[in-house]
Amino acid sequence: MYVGIDVGTSMVKAAAFDAVGRQLAVESRPVGLTMHGGVVEQDMEEVYGEVVAVLEALTSAVAEPVELAGLTGQGDGVWLVDGEGRPVRPAASWMDGRAHELVDRWLADGTFETVFRRTGGAMFPGSPGPLLAWLERHEPKSLDAAKAAVYCKDMVFQRLTGAGSTTDVSDASMPFLDPRTRTYDNRVVELLGLAHRRGLLAPVSDPVATAGARGEGLPPGTRIANGPYDLPACALGAGVTSPGDGLLIVGTCLASLVATTELDLTGEPAGLYISTDRPGHWLRAMPAMVGTAALDWVLSTTGVRHDEVDGLLAGTPPGANGVRVLPYFAPSGERAPFVEPRLRAELTGVSLESSRGDLVRATCEGIGYAARHCLAAAGLTGSLAVCGGGTRSSAWMRLLADVLGRPLRVVEGEVGARGAVLAAAERYGVPLDAEVWTKPTAVVEPDPDRAAFYARGYEEHLDRLAGARARARK
């Protein structure tokens, strides 16, 4: 069997596949997040412990030898480790907002734009540059104690294999990597006041690093490949590799990706260009801060269960009886397709006559409008695949097809883990048929009348968003 490991923000998963990509089994464990005052952190020992636990459960459940394993996980944030890959402090999550004042300053003085023009990455508070700069100002002893500032999957790879600290071009893309040379841009490091911390940046392994397992969770000697991180891994797992084709990941993060061979560093600085395993090929990424997390908050607040969502969507008309949601719930504001650290969610059109269904539908519509905005900015011209936890709701998929006004190639299952296996197979020279592995499970067509309705609603969404952004800057 082939094992894909996906170390997510709220869930750690391991999936087993056979040689033609059939998903044999999945094991998962939740991992915690601590949130207070804009600070969002994770316990690295908990994360690693749950990785080992899911691997042990998976290899016990499927009595087949492991041919190889691919590793992926959440991107951004700062995971400070010592020489053995062990934490020197809790991991700062990509959702962390403590560095927003630094981002505000860099937006005002031109540093933000300069970095984007050099690297194609628009910094946000939870990206490594601002977080490292914040730690330098407020926790320099943590940086002194660290051997490397890595990313989530890199910490796991080091612990599973005993290899040294390393990362790959996809994780390194934000915000220090020059996408043309695929090496760190030392001028960017200097601009962020981190020149004397340059040694903390993990060496970039291009292509991704490989090593054998030490025996925790996987049999000793099992071949493991590290990377790419979850967004490009999902693109691989969904078969999004041809220029112009796109992927929408409806997960905790609402991520829009479009494959491209064109590197355009003009225009409004937002999102990033993710370097892939093929030089000259990038993913133009617009990873919005809040996806299913926004819906989860609304469900929790209104007391709606997840299994009630489809029924509520079916029982509420398009437009949600006038209720509107701008779904920018993240403590660190928004990062795509624009950067607005102080932007917050807005709920309008609510009255005593509004129902729970109205609130749920308005939230799903708002997330759909945000996705449409991101995909347009990313340059989508071809087909669109969709994956993530949101695909489990058939009603939401129909709503998304209508809001986006295009067919959706739904790819179910553990798509990130699937992509991690395909990346590992490429690295080890194992012949797997990527077309067979990435075949969609369904195609959802939009309804023409509802699509026309939502096209008008999208223009209204952009108008409301412009007002909200203006208020956030005051």
Helix and strand topology:
Layout: E1 2-7, E2 11-17, E3 23-30, E4 34-36, E5 39-42, H1 44-61, E6 68-73, E7 79-81, E8 91-92, H2 100-109, H3 111-119, H4 128-138, H5 140-145, E9 148-150, H6 152-161, E10 167-168, H7 169-172, E11 177-178, E12 183-184, H8 186-191, E13 204-205, E14 210-212, E15 223-226, H9 230-237, E16 246-250, E17 254-260, E18 272-275, E19 282-288, H10 292-302, H11 309-314, E20 324-326, E21 346-348, H12 356-378, E22 384-387, H13 394-404, E23 408-410, H14 415-428, H15 434-437, E24 442-444, H16 448-472
Parallel strand pairs: 1-6, 6-15, 10-13, 16-22, 22-23
Antiparallel strand pairs: 1-2, 2-3, 4-5, 5-8, 7-9, 11-12, 14-15, 16-17, 17-19, 18-19, 20-21, 23-24
Helix pairs in contact: 1-6, 9-14, 10-12, 12-13, 12-16, 13-16
Structural description of this entry:
Residues 270-425 form the Carbohydrate kinase FGGY C-terminal domain. InterPro entries: ATPase_NBD (IPR043129), Carb_kinase_FGGY (IPR000577), FGGY_C (IPR018485), FGGY_Carb_Kinase (IPR050406), FGGY_N (IPR018484). One of its GO terms (biological process) is carbohydrate metabolic process. Belongs to the FGGY kinase family. One of its GO terms (molecular function) is kinase activity. With 474 residues, the chain is of the alpha+beta class. The chain folds into two domains: 2-232, Nucleotidyltransferase, domain 5, CATH 3.30.420.40; 288-410 and 444-472, 2-Layer Sandwich (Nucleotidyltransferase, domain 5), CATH 3.30.420. It is 37% helix and 20% strand. It has 16 helices and 24 strands. The protein has helices at residues 44-61, 100-109, 111-119, 128-138, 140-145, 152-161, 169-172, 186-191, 230-237, 292-302, 309-314, 356-378, 394-404, 415-428, 434-437, 448-472; strands at residues 2-7, 11-17, 23-30, 34-36, 39-42, 68-73, 79-81, 91-92, 148-150, 167-168, 177-178, 183-184, 204-205, 210-212, 223-226, 246-250, 254-260, 272-275, 282-288, 324-326, 346-348, 384-387, 408-410, 442-444. The protein has a seven-stranded mixed sheet, with helices on both faces. A six-stranded mixed sheet has the order 3-2-1-6-15-14. Strand 22, helix 13 (394-404) and strand 23 form a beta-alpha-beta unit. Helix 12 (356-378) crosses helix 13 (394-404). The chain is globular, with a radius of gyration of 21 Å. The relative contact order is 0.14. The mean pLDDT is 95.
